[in-house]
Here is the input.
Amino acid sequence: MKSPAEQLQLLTRGTAQIISEKELLKKLERGTPLRAKLGVDPTSPDLHLGHSVVLEKLRQFQELGHQAVLIIGDFTAQIGDPTGRSKTRPPLSREAILSNAETYTEQAFRILDREKTEVVFNGEWFNKMSFSDVIQLNARVTMQQMLQREDFKNRIANDQEVRLHEIQYPIVQGWDSVEVRADVELGGTDQLFNILVGRDMQKTEGMEPQVVMCLPILEGLDGVQKMSKSLNNYVGISEAPREMFGKLMSISDELMARYSLLLMGEEIDSTIHPMEAKKSLAAALVTRYYTTDEAAAARDNWEAMFSRKDLDAADLPDFAIGERRDLVGVVTEVYETIFSSPKSGSDVRRLIQQGSVQLDGEKLTDPRAEPAWARGQVLKVDKKRSVRIA
RNA sequence: GGGUAGAUUCCGGAGCGGUCAAACGGGGCAGACUGUAAAUCUGCUGGCUAUGCCUUCGAAGGUUCGAAUCCUUCUCUGCCCA
Here is the structure.
């Protein structure tokens, strides 16, 4: 086992903020495993690289012999975390939450060590609370404290509504820390406020307050907004190697540097061509969730498709012409069934007219065309997506 | 409870009886260029069995040849006062 000082050094690496390192060191010096808490709301069924930043940190705790406590916010998901929101979150149905929780944990264990993870649902304690329990919980914090929050302040300043259940969220999350007796709570920097509330709650309960450990927020593929499924700027950790590789190749150079730092903990090698650096990064990330062989295959295929533009050599998904043989019909089908990104007939028509669609390298710009389809032809629907006619 | 302002297409926001599938900006998508980078330029951005047709401007009714625009009721939200 590593010394407390060594552990501290490893654990603080890549973090954005820790309150406080001194406290963390003290806890480490106790020599008993720390309880490291991470709360997740199963609001979406898929985990992406944004989540992975904090999950990797939690795994690091596990590797150092500590206890990971993963709280599934089945209860909190019903409230909806207002963090970073300019609008109230729509509530989720109970069924959706439970099924999300299922896929969520499944994916989380691609990163975490299942054996060393304690999984708890916070509905376990919150669903048992009576209304007077709730009132007492609320009595622990002041309105002024809650209004300190950036999101709420902004909304109020902009004359937007803030509903009362939303200001309960930090209270509820804070109480989780008391319930699981957390020593450390991990989260994105946007969780700072919520985690601090947990600290206060523990103090009033006479517990030793948890250490706050915030990790940087990963930007999405657009490089501006935070990675999230709803903005469709994410790379899912269970996406196919090729998808993952391709998405990572589309990021900007600035973003590449950031991803490298936050996800791999490394600086980009500035002596090589940025594209090469990006390929290495993409391959390294694919390897993390798959194997080196699969990463290499993804890279080869990508190079065939986009560097050499040799679509014949590339391994493309097959598409069998169905009922509809007209161009609009076929392209619509391809988007829907092969790439699962449905487009309306009008969208497809537009793509065709704008010269996005090619058959064996020939642009097809007439939406009414009905090409003589033949097995083996390559149908390119846009710059990034092609299929082979089967 | 009283007063007042408002609800428009993904978002912001014009429109105030026909010329409105609705200006403009943002975002998004596509094309050109390129390193599936950035920057730049161009086009598109409700749907369809598509030179026309259908459904949209908080909801329901009404006036009118004709309504996002006028009237009635309802629902929701902000702000001010208590």
Summary: The two ends of chain A are 57 Å apart (CA to CA). Residues 159-161, 222, 232, 246-247, 249-256, 273-276, 278, 302, 305-307, 343-347, 349-351, 353-356, 382-384 of chain A lie near RNA strand B (CB under 10 Å from a C1').
